[in-house]
Specification:
This protein is of the alpha/beta class. It folds into 2 domains: about 70 residues, no CATH class; about 300 residues, TIM Barrel, CATH 3.20.20. The protein is built from 14 helices and 13 strands. The strands form 4 sheets. A 4-stranded mixed beta sheet has the order 1-9-2-11. A 4-stranded parallel beta sheet has the order 5-4-3-10. A hairpin with an 8-residue loop joins strand 12 and strand 13. It binds zinc ion.
Length: about 450
């Protein structure tokens, strides 16, 4: 009797285990879901979150997240015909994920390679007005995003969200919520690969797929972007400008390095104290007319959002004015088009009022003249490198090609996927042992 029961139950148990394990493989669509669980190991309770069924554009028409889109699709072929790349600078692609600034890297004076040459060309790196904090969040949307939106709404603040296209098609309702809440949406590429390692055509594909994803979710055609890792040179800048994009970096000393927290390479307290020290140093400078600053944070994990709430409260208590990038630049046209309908030409933007800031006398100003860089200081064990270089170097340790991790957040995603896998395997093993033990006791 016992052996009959076992022979019946064991296949059932094995099937249960196999069913559980099938989730370990994870589809691309599950990627951001586990991210919020990374720091607190909550991923076990998470279920893969699919693209909203209410989305009018199914995620399946898009390229796979995390991969550089193919150039062979009809969409990309069409986009390539619309972008004139014939005058692109002849600057070779870099190598690495992301490229390094050390051995083997050739200093090309024409490249103005932001991470390694401390050169930002005409990228936006500051807010023009004194005591203004340009608030930005990269790598979303994700499951961590709603809590941030709730907090920002409570504080009546607007931010710029640099969205990963591959995440937008998985959480289109969150991108829409961001837009409807008055936040400024911008591009952070499709797959978060370092753009200087890609061909001109691949850069177009990365940007255009993201542009389409955000348009499909929100109706807005974005015109601001932030390169993953801050990895940009004059070749990449040329391609981006041909598509009408404005490149936004961040102010060096205001990189929160919050992406390191879920990886346990930086404590939340260290990130908090470091950022607050940067604010105090900024406030201590008495120079009249000093520009405001742009921070780098992420809404990819719960702990990042929790830190953001602390830092924002601290900044507000120190009389900083917190704005989105569109608002801090007084840009009346933060989008290239609005109310875009797929299949129909987008509505050209004549004037879109900034989300929260009334127009001022500085509207229409020539932005590049305000684009000085903030003073560069260092912190942490890699003190001989600038914070931007530290940001890069971090990827050398956590962003191998095998894991395709990225400094500003994707490592957390990869890491949490791994945690999900381990936890599911552990639970499966525990269930198997429990069943066998229970049967053996019959
Ligand atoms: Zn990023």
């Amino acid at each position: 009797m016992l052996s009959t029961s076992i022979s019946g139950f064991v296949p059932f148990v094995i099937c249960c285990v196999l069913l559980l394990l099938t989730g370990v493989q994870g589809s691309p669509a599950s990627a951001p879901t586990s991210a919020s669980g990374a720091p607190s190991h909550k991923a076990k309770a998470s279920k893969p979150q699919r693209a909203s069924s209410s989305s009018s554009t199914p995620a399946s028409i898009y390229p796979p997240p995390d991969l550089v889109p193919s150039l062979d699709s009809p969409e990309v072929q069409q986009w390539l015909q619309e972008v004139d790349l014939s005058q692109a600078p002849n600057i070779p692609s870099n190598k690495g994920e992301p490229p390094t600034c050390g051995t083997g890297w050739t200093l090309n004076p024409k490249s103005c390679y932001t991470p390694c040459q401390e050169c930002s060309a005409d990228d936006v790196v500051t807010c023009p007005d004194q005591d203004v904090w340009g608030l930005t969040f990269d790598d979303g949307p994700s499951k961590a995003t709603p809590a941030l939106l709730q907090f920002l709404e409570k504080k009546q603040l607007k931010a710029t969200f640099f969205l990963i296209g591959g995440n937008v098609v998985q959480f289109p309702e969150l991108a829409k919520k961001e837009s409807e809440s008055g936040h400024h949406l911008a591009s952070h590429t499709w797959s978060h690969h370092p753009l200087t390692t890609l061909t001109n055509q691949q850069i177009v594909a990365e940007m255009k797929w993201t542009e389409k994803a955000i348009m499909d979710a929100t109706g807005h055609k974005v015109r601001y972007m932030r390169p993953p890792y801050g990895d940009v040179d004059n070749r990449v800048r040329f391609v981006l400008k041909q598509m009408g994009y404005v490149v936004v970096d961040w102010s060096d000393t205001f990189d929160t390095l919050d992406w390191q927290i879920p990886l346990h390479h930086r404590t939340r307290k260290e990130a908090e104290v470091g950022f607050q020290a940067s604010i105090q140093k900024y406030l201590a400078r008495k120079a009249a007319g000093k520009p405001g600053f742009i921070s780098l944070e992420h809404d990819l994990a719960d702990i990042n959002v929790d830190l953001a709430q602390t830092l924002i409260t601290y900044g507000a208590n120190n009389n900083l004015t917190i704005r989105s990038i569109a608002d801090c630049l007084h840009d009346p046209n933060p989008y290239a088009a609005i109310n875009y309908a797929p299949g129909v030409n987008g509505v050209a933007v004549g004037s879109i009022p900034p989300s929260s800031t009334p127009k001022s006398d500085t509207d229409g100003l020539d932005l590049p003249q305000y684009r000085g860089k903030t003073s560069s200081t260092s912190s942490g064990g890699l003190s001989r490198f600038s914070p931007r270089q530290q940001h890069f170097l971090g990827n050398l340790f956590f962003g191998s090609r095998a894991s395709a991790g990225t400094a500003d957040g994707h490592n957390a995603t990869r890491f949490s996927r791994w945690l999900v896998a381990v936890e599911r395997i552990s639970w499966s093993g525990a269930i198997l042992v429990s069943f066998v033990a229970g049967l053996a006791s019959l």
